[in-house]
Amino acid sequence: EMGANWLLQFSSEIEQRYLRRLSIITELKEVLQSEQDELSLVYQPKISLETRQVNGLEALIRWNSQRLGFIPPDEFIEIAEQAGFIEQVTDWVLNRVVADILILREHQIHIKPAVNLSTQDIQNRPLLERLIALLDANELSADNITLEITESDLVADAKIAIANLQFLQDKGFSIAIDDFGTGYSSLAYLKNLPVSAIKIDKAFVLNLSTDTEDQQIVHTVLSLSNIFDLEVVAEGVEDANAMEILAEWGCDTAQGYYISRPLPLGGLIDWLASSDY
Ligand code: C2E
Ligand code: CA
Ligand code: CA
Ligand code: CA
To answer: Domain EAL: where (predicted)?
Structure first.
């Protein structure tokens, strides 16, 4: 019967998803504990739309699994969050970023990388203390790192999250709100938070040169952010048109494939030496 067939297929899809999740959890935990180099970081440059010079980097994790192939971060980060070991991933990222900052310094490069924190990280004071200790141990101050957090991170347990944000800002970290526009918070709300920048999500930027709705949204965000004195970063800048529109409307910083794709550290160092930005 058709109905029974459908049900069988449906349950086997659920089973496959479940098995993939399970192998991702198992493999990722193992990789985090071993010295294998399946995990890496790539860095995407951000440029000032005023000076057209590089003014920051975003560190993005990559996982090339020997057994499972390339797994996109969107997929395994969410699984690590749900399975309760995201802090191990974040610890790995933070340790690598600090090591990379030291390598960049050897090349006289002093550009600040941003790290993505997950919802649970911002509630996790011991993790934040480990970050501070890690910087201390390497004689780096907190103003060498920007922390990117999403709006939804503030909703889960707003009191603890905001207290931790304040703690981080007092320590000297810059904090940026990621994926701005995809959640519920307004700029008026952010005004009262210890936040220095917002990142307009690429969903509103990718088609900026043609989509009039996106244009209205981005324009509104840029006008309001001026009032609230927030730095605005646009991610997903893929063409010259979008970049010029953003510059004209007073957006501070741009990030996207048009400027550069995320690059491994060595590639980044070469790119910085050869690019006009
Ligand atoms: P995100 O934080 O919003 O990062 C921006 C994403 O947009 C990155 O995808 C980046 O490669 C991509 N991107 C940059 N410029 C362009 C562009 O011009 N066009 C298009 N189409 N895409 C662009 P990626 O690296 O696949 O990361 C996806 C998400 O995974 C990130 O979104 C972030 O939420 C998460 N993620 C990545 N690395 C980490 C990490 O180290 N820790 C945590 N917690 N999350 C991470
Ligand atoms: Ca980000
Ligand atoms: Ca994000
Ligand atoms: Ca985003």
So the answer is: 21-276
Ligand 1 binding pocket (C-beta < 6 A) is: 44, 60-61, 72-74, 77, 93, 116, 118, 178-179, 202, 235-238, 256-257, 262
- For residue 71, the cross-strand partners are 63
Ligand positioned closest to the Cα atom of 46: 1
Look up the ipTM and state it.
0.98
In the DSSP assignment, the letter for residue 110 is -
Closest C-alpha to ligand 1, atom 19: 236
Q: Radius of gyration (Cα) for the chain, nearest Å?
A: 20
Pick left, alpha or beta for residue 179 (phi over 0 → left; psi -120 to 50 → alpha; otherwise beta).
left
What are the residues whose beta carbons fall under 8 Å from the beta carbon of 138, sequence distance 6 or more?
98, 101, 102
Atom of ligand 1 nearest to the CA of 74: 30
CA 6 to ligand 3 centroid distance, Å: 36
Q: Say how far apart CA 257 and CA 68 lie, in whole Å.
A: 27
Helix and strand totals (H; E) in the chain: 11, 10
pTM of the model: 0.95
Q: Phi/psi of residue 205, each to 5°?
A: -110, -30
- Per-residue pLDDT tens digits for 171-219: 999 999 999 888 766 777 787 789 999 999 999 999 999 999 999 999 9
> Is residue 87 within 8 Å of residue 123, measured between CB atoms?
no
